[in-house]
């Protein structure tokens, strides 16, 4: 990406020539062949169409997801039209065969993650001695991994075990795409009090963290729209459980007394009274 680049309106003619206008309201260009006056009349950082039918357009605050400009075209015969020119092809205006307009909106440095593609990508910075290099590792469709050969950067050499000649070694970085479904998901959970860590554990389904009379369960997990993993926790208190356990113990003890100990005690008492 070009640093500090400005948005421009690119005008392409039928003969293959091109010219650009800085994307500012009021900027205009008079073309001779065809004879057309091109003027930028409105700029949208994030264009959105509201309502049904023709609807109306608004500039929605937030990241530039749908940048666009409105261009007024005035021809020699007095005909005047307006055309929406979108930077990302999400909304199209009318297009002439002899005049093509394109809104060039510089992207931010880097890339926003899109989990819907299912294609992992990573930009890495490689440093070795005085050399540094930025590379993108991108897996494409029908590929399970991407790789980058480090030999050119590292210039590693080793002796061939079969002779005295040196040869370069294959040293690759791999970015692999996960295959199949996730069978187990683990979350690192930390409990802090006044900035001090008092408990921590890697939890999973049916493997909660217990602290301070509470159980922290992994309720659910997934990915948000930006590809970031999240964990939803379920917290349950064990206060009062001791009384429940005591109650169960008394109930079980009562059943043993009623159905085992009492009949046995009665049996021996009866035999003793009968002189057996």
UniProtKB/TrEMBL annotation:
GO terms for biological process: cytochrome complex assembly. InterPro entries: Cyt_c_bgen_Ccs1/CcsB/ResB, ResB-like_domain. It is a multi-pass membrane protein. GO terms for cellular component: membrane. Residues 172-225 form the ResB-like domain. Keywords: Cytochrome c-type biogenesis, Membrane, Transmembrane, Transmembrane helix. It is found in: Membrane. The chain crosses the membrane at residues 243-261. PANTHER family: CYTOCHROME C BIOGENESIS PROTEIN CCS1, CHLOROPLASTIC. This is ResB-like domain-containing protein. It comes from marine sediment metagenome. The lineage of its organism: unclassified sequences, metagenomes, ecological metagenomes.
């Amino acid at each position: 990406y070009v640093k500090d680049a400005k948005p421009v309106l690119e005008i392409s003619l039928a003969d293959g020539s091109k010219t650009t206008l800085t994307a500012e309201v009021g900027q205009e260009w008079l073309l001779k062949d065809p004879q057309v006056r091109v003027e930028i009349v409105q700029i949208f950082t994030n264009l959105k169409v509201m309502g049904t039918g023709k609807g109306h357009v608004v500039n929605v605050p937030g990241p530039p997801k749908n940048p666009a400009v409105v261009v007024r075209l005035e021809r020699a015969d007095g005909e005047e039209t307006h055309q929406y020119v979108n930077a990302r092809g999400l909304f199209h205006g009318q297009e002439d065969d002899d005049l093509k307009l394109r809104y060039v909106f510089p992207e931010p440095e880097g890339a926003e993650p899109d989990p819907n593609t299912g294609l992992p990508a990573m930009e890495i910075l490689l440093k070795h001695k005085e050399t540094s290099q930025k590379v993108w590792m991108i897996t494409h469709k029908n590929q399970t991994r991407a790789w980058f050969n480090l030999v050119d950067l590292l210039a590693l050499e080793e002796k061939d075990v079969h002779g005295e000649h040196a040869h370069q070694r294959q040293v690759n970085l791999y970015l692999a795409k996960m295959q199949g479904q996730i069978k187990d998901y683990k979350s690192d959970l930390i409990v802090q009090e006044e900035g001090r860590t008092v408990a921590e554990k890697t939890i999973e389904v049916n493997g909660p963290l217990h602290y301070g009379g509470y159980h922290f369960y992994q309720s659910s997990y997934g990915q948000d729209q930006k590809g970031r993993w999240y964990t939803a926790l379920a917290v349950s208190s064990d206060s009062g459980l001791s009384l429940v356990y005591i109650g169960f113990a008394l109930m079980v003890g009562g059943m043993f007394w009623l159905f085992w100990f009492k009949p046995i005690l009665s049996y021996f008492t009866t035999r003793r009274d009968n002189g057996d």
